[in-house]
Amino acid sequence: MTYAGYTARRTDRDRQPPRRVITGALLGDPQPDRLKRSEAIRARLGMKAQVTGNIPDKIIPLLRAIEDCPLAPGELADVLELGQSTCDDRVKTAVRLGLAIRTGGVRNRRIALTKEGRTSLEELPQ
User: Fold this and answer.
1) Residue 87's CATH number
2) Domain housing 108
3) One pLDDT digit (tens) per residue for the chain, 126 residues
4) 0.70 exceeded by the pTM?
5) Cα(52)–Cα(50) distance, rounded to whole angstroms?
6) Last residue of a domain, one of 9, 26, 48
7) Same domain as 24, residue 84
8) Between the CA of residue 6 and those of 12, 18, 71, what are the distances in Å?
9) Most exposed: 22, 34, 92, 96, by fewest CB within 10 Å?
10) Total of domains in the chain
C-alpha cells in the first residue's frame, strides 16, 4: 500500500527513533530493514559499546575506581582522566545497570558500588 506524495527518507534521522522506521514501513518504505542494517554497520565499525559479560567495557574502569571507597563526581573524573560529561554518562550507565548508586545530597554526592556491581567486578578476569 503506497500513498501519493510520500517519499521515503534516507537520512540519519530515520535511523534514530524506531517510530520513524515503523511509519516508513506502514507507508511503503522501500527499505524497511534500515534500522537493523544501521545497527549491524555500527557494531562492525566498533561504534557500539563492547560488552564483557553483562558489563560494558567502558564501565569497568569506573567500577574499579569506586571499588575501595565511594568518590565524588569531580574526583571520579580526575581519577579516570575523563571530562566531566563523559564521566557523568558512564556513571548514568552504571546506575541504570544497577552496578553503582548515587549517595548523599546535592553538595556531598558520592558514587558507590552496589552488591551487584561488586559481584560482577569480582567475576571479571583480572
Assistant:
1) 1.10.10.10
2) 51-123
3) 455 555 555 566 555 555 555 555 556 555 657 677 777 776 666 655 555 567 788 888 999 999 988 999 889 999 999 899 989 989 998 988 889 999 988 788 899 999 988 888 888 877
4) no
5) 7
6) 48
7) no
8) 18, 18, 53
9) 96
10) 2
